[in-house]
């Protein structure tokens, strides 16, 4: 995507979506590993496959084409992204974050993101839910690099409250009511696709990270650029560090995420309802 016509592309895509959907929600959810089943709780669903949406990145992985889903979660109209674009797949940062740009153009005010992550915090256990309180961006590129469009946000956006304190507090209250154990922590965003070496997990812990993953940070940067309110949550699917001997695998990540899914879903459903 050439940056010259990025604004035009965002508007074109938003126009197309408006032509397809009667009511545009103000709340969006990026369904990461561990939250996919939230789709089952969305009523009156309308699917827009990514392949039919103008300017959306084209999926390279067979059977992983993805959908934008419009519908109602409880009483609240939501847009859900079923499938996201990862940097490790080869997309550039502008492609990874394009859907968030479009959401902003559509009028979305609040973005919920979820992911699977490896835990470095020694208090964490596999299956824990970690509310993201902050992040460390270790991607080789910032999605805002290049020409800044003042229509989209400021040249030098503050990242002081990347993750809404208001929504973190609300999520804590909901977790306490439902007696679900939630941890808080700093998410380290890395390009992947390798899992970390023991020394790298250790390094990320020493610099202040609690969990590490390969997504979320680019989308959150772009959402904050557009002044959206953001809430992020990780499911801890594996643990890493000097003393950890288990080898993380994609299967293990999927399995752990699946187990935590009902709890993550309960919190998210209620949070979106009360938001
Ligand atoms: N590292 C990076 N990404 C991940 C991990 C991990 O250990 N687990 C799930 N996603």
What does this protein structure show overall?
The chain is of the alpha/beta class and 275 residues long. Helix 2 crosses helix 5. The two termini are 34 Å apart. The chain has helices at 6-20, 93-106, 165-177, 198-206, 217-225, 250-274; strands at residues 27-31, 42-49, 67-73, 76-82, 110-119, 129-137, 182-189, 211-213, 229-239. The mean pLDDT is 92. The longest helix is centred in the C-terminal third of the chain and has 25 residues, at 250-274. A five-stranded mixed β-barrel has the order 5-8-7-6-9, surrounded by four helices. It is globular. It contains six helices and nine strands; from the N terminus they run αββββαββαβαβαβα. The relative contact order is 0.20. Hypoxanthine (HPA) is lined by residues 116-118, 195-196, 212-214, 237-238, 240, 248, 253.
Give me the count of strands.
9
Strand order of the largest sheet: 5-8-7-6-9
Low-confidence stretches: none
Reported for the largest beta sheet, the result is: 5 strands, mixed, barrel
Bound molecules: hypoxanthine
Given helix and strand content, the structural type is alpha/beta
Task: Give the arrangement of secondary structure elements.
Elements: H1 6-20, E1 27-31, E2 42-49, E3 67-73, E4 76-82, H2 93-106, E5 110-119, E6 129-137, H3 165-177, E7 182-189, H4 198-206, E8 211-213, H5 217-225, E9 229-239, H6 250-274
Parallel strand pairs: 1-4, 1-5, 5-9, 6-7, 7-8
Antiparallel strand pairs: 2-3, 3-4, 5-8, 6-9
The structure holds hypoxanthine.
Residues 116-118, 195-196, 212-214, 237-238, 240, 248, 253 line the site of hypoxanthine.
